[in-house]
Amino acid sequence: MAHEIEQFTDGTAAFATARVSAWHGLGVRTDSAMTAEEAMRLASLDGWNVRKVPLTATEITPTGAESIEVPQHFASVRTHPKTGRPETLGVVGTDFWPMQNEEHAEFLNTLADVSGAHFETAGSLKNGRQVFLTMKLPQTMTVAGSDRTDLYIAASNSHDGNSKFRVVTTPIRVVCANTERAAFRGAPSVFAVAHRSGAKARIAQARQALGLTFKYAEEFEKAAERMVQAELTLTELQQVVDQVFPMTHDGKVAQANQRKRRAAISNLFLYGENQAGIRGTRWAGYNAVTEYVNHVAPARGTKTEQQKAATRAERIITGTADAPMEKAFALLTV
Length: 334
Prior knowledge:
By secondary structure, the chain is α+β, with helices and mostly antiparallel strands. The chain has 9 helices and 10 strands. The strands form 2 sheets. Strands 2-1-6-7-8-9-10 form a 7-stranded mixed sheet.
């Protein structure tokens, strides 16, 4: 899988980043933090006017072409940011309610006003079917007294009906890094809004719920500190690995893959450079699992290191990397 950042025929790309260049080398880099308006403009996200258009099918008959209505189905269409022509993004149902990129940015702008956060990245993926914006918060998380981690709010939205509008509290700078993410009771890291006619009202609820951003950081630090103080043996970690990554079927290949996975995570736990000061603890075990998921786990269908990095970044944006990390956290937290 490639990075899937949208690229245009004029050589530009739908991506903007503040200060730090992205690993894929595409898009516009600014010298300072971006405003919502700058992020939208520089990433070519403004003026899309995503709308629903009734679907019809064309049947070729002996007497000519006949147009047939497709009930309860619509094309999700945008105005292309470069050509100005209408472009289909996907097929959606009657309940789908387009959420404009401007609404997406407005939502994050509201959070910026109350939190002091600033925009870091913005972009379009899969030829406009998915967009994302991230902001960096002024707060950081501190674990084990000295390990400071920046905190971000990342929001992604799909225009093809395949996923909800998702807001994530995470130590990640999309699309330039990988992350670890955990779920907490009372402080979830993800808030999702369905594409329905009441989506704007639910976004207002999300603004309230995103008081969880700071609660998330606080709870994360507390949980991590407890895990730093709790010992973990290699045997216990391997038992956790087998629960996080259960074999779905028996066979030599599955068994070999499980052994490789267990060995890779064990090696990170015992000898990983990032384990200094926490080695032999439950926090080190959790970090070994997340490092494996984000940096070591096979990226199927890729050949180059850049392709592998791209695939892993895609996992983060879409949330497909969350499940094993959250399960590991649940098994290792104390």
